[in-house]
Design brief:
CATH architecture of the largest domain in chain B: Beta Barrel
Strand order of the largest sheet of chain A: 5-4-6-7-1-8-13-12-11
Oligomer: heterodimer
Number of strands of chain A: 14
Radius of gyration of chain A: 20 Å
Distance between the termini of chain A: 63 Å
CATH superfamily of chain A: Thiolase/Chalcone synthase
Shape of chain B: globular
Number of helices of chain B: 2
CATH topology of the largest domain in chain B: OB fold (Dihydrolipoamide Acetyltransferase, E2P)
CATH architecture of chain A: 3-Layer(aba) Sandwich
Structural class of chain B: mainly beta
Bound molecules: zinc ion
CATH topology of chain A: Peroxisomal Thiolase, Chain A, domain 1
Distance between the termini of chain B: 48 Å
CATH class of chain A: Alpha Beta
Shape of chain A: globular
Chain lengths: 377, 141
């Protein structure tokens, strides 16, 4: 494998070689996405509605962030309910027998319980198990992509038949904080297997450092962020380094991909990083959902991938790079297979259709739904 | 509701699982283990049957005086839904801009939602509610 130029000490890469490259073990199974589903709560609050409350310039804020509105979970929704709805779409679409699922991993930074897994609620709701392994993943906004990597390993090595990976969040920003404009809710689910693959997961690499750009201490309702830390040394450094390592490993360039999806803390960052790496607006347009729904955290890149899978043609190559504060980036090189043609005959809603049906909220209803109003008892 | 009872009722609360009488083909939700039509003939012939989750509102009301734990959702719609399999159930209808929009004849589908929780530190009860059926499931050509 070709080491990227900035690899420290010129040390060898710790990641395995991609399939069909020198050094890839021949006995490993192919691995890919067998089906996918998604869910975004129906409620929206507009950037201008939030700005009005805090005396900010609404149109300017919306333009700076490239976020016009964000999704808001209803009072009866959380990461478990979002995970179930996303998974049911994935399972129902292909009539998948949930008892074939050998592993369930849910990545989120807003699991409903501090202690008690979301994955078990999900398993019961879809009728999977009890013969399966489950765990919840946490790594800020990249918990879902980390779960995806684990699932890839289990399927590729034949340890499980099929793994279910869900990335979902119902994130909160403190009132008046810049995060309040973007922190939103949504989820995406993927059945990862080695047969009837609609999108082949060719390879994955990561780039991880200890960077205090964003955190939330135990028991705190809202997260904190290290102001100047969030941009250049955090998101941009990690996504760029990870993406470059992926292209070095695959011996590819941006031109080799029809679609690219990046993590979307707002609508601006993914556009900037795409440009820096040499991707065009055409390549990122389909998967760029932040302007319409805000930052769905763990679900941001996975939802973008779902939107791409809705329209991609057989043979299309997709470049996906997630990012999680704290900090790390996971990249995936994906090829859409011929099976996507028959898959799409099994009709199901698309991301575009799903996002079109909305109910707008005023600030007071939003504040009530998100538990931002302190009751006097 | 106690945690043990809720746990026992998970299949029908989580998955809308009812029963089907293999003697006469009638479907029941909530599940019945003896068919009221076939009676003794149905004993041992009742199978689990997962409801499709789509149905139609037959009657509805708007609740202003909420059950404990539902204060944040007032006013909300409660409706009697006839599932496409023919069974009826009473449920909250969520995700509507105005609860008065929930009227007889409206098409709905099941959704997995939080029903209640035992305060801020207790167990969270999940189950099935209904939401407007808007996505007919098309795909781009
Ligand atoms: Zn009968």
């Amino acid at each position: 494998m070709i080491a990227p130029p900035d690899r420290e000490n010129g040390a060898p890469s710790p990641f395995g070689a991609p399939p069909r490259h020198e050094g890839h073990p021949p006995h490993l199974r192919p691995v890919g996405i067998v089906s996918y589903g998604f869910y975004v709560p129906r409620y929206r609050i507009r950037t201008e509605t939030i700005a009005q409350v805090w005396g900010h310039d609404g149109p300017q804020t919306a333009a700076n962030l490239n976020v016009r509105q964000k999704s808001v979970p209803g009072p009866d929704e959380d990461v478990a309910t979002i995970s179930v709805e996303a998974t049911r779409q994935a399972i129902d679409r292909v009539g998948f027998d949930p008892r074939r699922v050998g592993a369930i991993y849910v990545g989120s930074e807003s699991h409903p319980y501090a202690v008690k897994p979301t994955g078990t609620i999900l398993a019961a709701a879809i009728g999977a198990g009890p013969e399966l392994t489950a765990a919840d993943f946490e790594f800020a906004c990249k918990a879902g992509t980390a779960a995806m990597q684990t699932a890839m390993g289990l399927v590729r090595s034949s340890m499980v038949d099929t793994a279910l990976v869900v990335a979902a969040d119902t994130s909160q920003g403190a009132p008046r904080n810049a995060l309040e404009y973007s922190a939103s809710a949504g989820g995406a689910a993927f059945l990862i297997g080695s047969e009837d693959i609609i999108a082949s997961l060719n390879h994955t690499v990561s780039f991880t450092t200890d960077t205090p750009d964003f955190w939330r201490r135990e028991g705190q309702k809202y997260p904190s962020h290290g102001e100047r830390f969030t941009g250049r040394p955090a998101f941009f450094r990690h996504v760029k380094a990870c993406a470059e390592r992926m292209m070095a490993a695959m011996e590819s360039t941006p031109d080799d991909y029809q679609h690219a999806v990046f993590h979307q803390p707002n609508g601006k960052f993914p556009v900037n990083i795409a440009k820096q790496l040499g991707f065009t607006m055409d390549q990122i347009q389909t998967g760029l959902l932040a302007p319409k729904i805000g930052n769905t955290y763990s679900a941001a890149a996975p939802l973008g991938l779902a939107a791409v899978l809705d329209i991609a043609a057989p043979g299309d190559r997709v470049f996906v790079t997630g990012y999680g504060s704290g900090a790390g980036s996971d990249a995936f090189d994906i090829t859409v297979t011929d099976a996507i043609v028959d898959y799409r005959k099994k009709k199901s809603r698309t991301v575009e259709e799903h996002l079109a049906k909305t109910v707008d909220l005023d600030y007071s209803t939003y504040a009530k739904y998100r538990g931002k109003i302190i009751l006097g008892d | 509701m106690g945690v043990p009872r809720f746990w026992r009722e998970q299949p029908h609360r989580y998955r809308l699982e009812g029963t089907r009488c293999t003697n006469c083909d009638r479907v029941y939700f909530p599940p019945r283990w003896v068919c009221p039509v076939c009676r003794r003939e149905s004993v041992g012939k009742m199978e689990r049957h997962k409801m499709d989750g789509t149905g139609t509102v037959v009657a509805s009301t708007v609740v202003h005086d909420p059950a404990p734990g539902f204060e944040d959702q007032v006013p909300y719609a409660v409706a009697i839904i006839e599932l496409d399999e023919g069974c009826r159930l009473t449920t909250q209808v969520s995700d509507v801009a105005d609860p008065h929009d929930v009227v007889p004849g409206m098409r709905v589908k099941s959704a997995f939602r939080r029903i209640q929780s035992d305060g801020a530190s207790g167990v969270i009860y999940y189950g099935t509610k209904f939401v407007p059926l808007v996505e007919q499931g098309s795909t781009p050509s």
